[in-house]
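Two quick folds needed for the group meeting slides. Do the first one here.
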Amino acid sequence: MSNQINYNDIPLIDHIKKLYPYCRSLTGDGARETLKYFEKYHPEYNRLVFPSGTKVLDWEIPYEWNIQDAYIEHLDTGQRFARFSKDNLHIVGYSEPVDKIIDYKELLPRIHTLKEQPDWVPYVTSYYKKYWGFCMSESEKKQLPKGKYRVFIDSTLHKGNLEISHALLEGQLSQEILFTSYICHPSMANNELSGPVVLNALMSYIKKTYKSTKYTYRFIMEPETIGSIAYLSLFSNTLKNNVICGINLSCVGDNRGYSYVQTPYNNTLADKALRSALYQLDNVKEYSFLQRGSDERQYCSPGIRLPVCTFCRTKFGEYPEYHTNADNLNVVNEEGLQGAYSVLKNIIDSFEIGLYPKTKVIGEPQLGKRGLYPNISEKNAYQKVKIRMNLLAYSDGKTSIFDISSFIKCSLNELLIEYRNLKNNGLIE
């Protein structure tokens, strides 16, 4: 791999397949290697390093955690269960090291399962309190033989670093469009890898399509919650001054539907952008800020209040495989990833082609002489150019393309097609 390879020349699902085995967490080698993977394609990224113990707003950077191996071994039979080498979700994230012999009854409380989903292994963490534990399917737990067990976790917790990658593609204006996603979950394909994979596809699209952008674009990859808090501890004033639209990407790899979490008052440019970009797509759900759950919590918190929505295909917590080992490569697919990519690409194009379209003629333009209106007046002739006429009627230079989409009940994609057509004919700017 070299910096000369275009990220988007590779199917997005292939990026997920390469990164899927990594054992990611808030800190550690898995997170670092994930950041390095994307940095190879995008040298614009800069790495931020926060040492353990650093105060970031009301939080503190935890110790760095790494793990080499873990399992439960039945002493009489030699059988091993909850093997980390088989599935990195078998270990409670941030488990401290342990190597000791315990009884069956002592072991059971340390095994986490999902009784309502008995065949799946849950994702469990304990970042901020010392603990050790294992995760298994409820079905497998019930099959554990009684007796003595060796519990073995070869992990380290030490003073290290939390790391974030961010990039700024500077445009003619200091006003920023923010894209962010997180890189802290182990092997779960949708609730983790889909977000940064699509985010980096958007960066590639901008770099390839626009040699000089009108707006500035900021891209952030960070561990969820503590990462966004750490980032805000450094850049909150810059972001509050510059960001006019922000989108957090989470769970954007399935093809079951589309959804987004609104900002607290559902009145920002980000809310309008996503609403218009999702108009007329199948199975779209809007969630209020009261149903938040990802990094929109931090970016929209009091004292920060950035215009940041979270965009998903199926929202986190709303699909059955969420936070289990069933969130695997069968949940995500190229169609789902490309669908998310297309939605966000249309939003980028809206900013670059013209956020506030303005007609260049006084009064209604004569479209017929430009071949933009049927010259034979007959019933339903207007319907053929309805979107074109409505776009012109609202292009006053003050109404955003997202608001126009809402007013005239037109998808953002259709509107962009007409926008380009009118712009090429010198009627709109």
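Then this one, please, same format:
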Amino acid sequence: MSDLTILPTVLVLDDEKNIRKAIEIALSDDQIHVVVAHDAAAAFRALNERIIDLVILDIKLGEIDGIAFYRKMQQDGFTIPTVFISGNATLTQAAEAIKIGAFDFLEKPFSAERISVVVKRCLEFSRLKERLRLIEAEHETVQIIGDSPLMRKVVGDAVKVARTTSSVLITGESGTGKELVANMIHARSERSQQPFVKVNCSAIPDNLIESELFGFVAGAFTGAATHKRGLFEVAHRGSIFLDEIADLSAASQAKLLRVLQSGEIQKIGSEKPVKVDVRVIAATHKDLKQMASQGVFREDLFYRVNVVPIHIPSLRERPEDIPLLARFFARRLCERNNFKEKPIDDAFLSVLIAYAWPGNVRELQNILERVIVMSGDTITSLDLPQEILADGEIPEGRKSGSTLRDFRDSAEREFILGMLKRNNGNISRSAIELGVGRTYLHKRLAVLGIARTEWFS
């Protein structure tokens, strides 16, 4: 997809040629592209053939008045900021225009400076509204929590690629947080104040994917009574997140590839392509490269979306992050349920670390929510469901009377000590081979009581 070079586009609908021309001249110095229409039919053609950022609409038209046109525009899914203009509208009509959602109302004649100021304010207001929506959505999501080397690399890679316009493919098991990384990439990009549209490719039936992604015009097929904007059009100048992209059918893959190659969408029932500027972030829990080599997924599409790959590790690959995540979820869930913050004992955390977490972070969050609701003032291992406890059963031959924590600490002590001896006491090398940070390793050495004199073979 192209960079952010597409200028804001304003549609002017007025049956007076001199007014259309005056507005076009007034906005020409403001880096704003102007499209003019002399009647409703021409205006609707423009709406369906290109992406319009703002409409300037005369309240008194020939065959249809401006308010009726505005209502029809909304019914057809065009929720575009609109400025009404008129030379002989009544006060009631002006009030009605504002009431139904117009940004402003200008009486003719107006100066070039006045129309320029109003258009700029309207475009800026629209951008701020979208930014506020994104901030609110961001606050509803879970933060990326983790201090392990693996997660630090994920966050570092996401921050680097966010500054570019490159396509990104995020891979990882279900529940690892692929959508959160996509959120971070968009939020830290130059497109952060523009739309971020999320699409679950596996949830859209194959016969509807084209209309959902690219839209259609009225009359395109039976039941298409109104126009529909596709999700690529909604994401114009922003980013689109194609989750579970591996589940697209072969036909849908071909249609998506054409959009990524040309930067244009073709609405169903329309002969004219529409230029869009969209940054693509895709995600999958499947091995897309292997699917491409097997011919199940288009190889050319794979290379289009896999410009910058980011892999998110499973939770069992970064056990040192589990206490951080558990405490974060516990605090957040207590606040949400108006509970006093509940402390977590070490035995509870030890069981969590020993568990395999096939559902990854999502499963951990669900377990914590269950525990927060059902536990007393302190969270202990006794509050965990049986399926979590069963995964950490004590092997036969264990010394009776020892706890799960004792067994885990003993095994961890022997493992870390063996690594240190093998590396002749080199902390940095041992931390890398253990897949943890140096700071975390020092903390574990202190907790497990491993003296420096034991480091060397």
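Slide caption for protein two: The CA atoms of residues 175 and 362 lie 5 Å apart.
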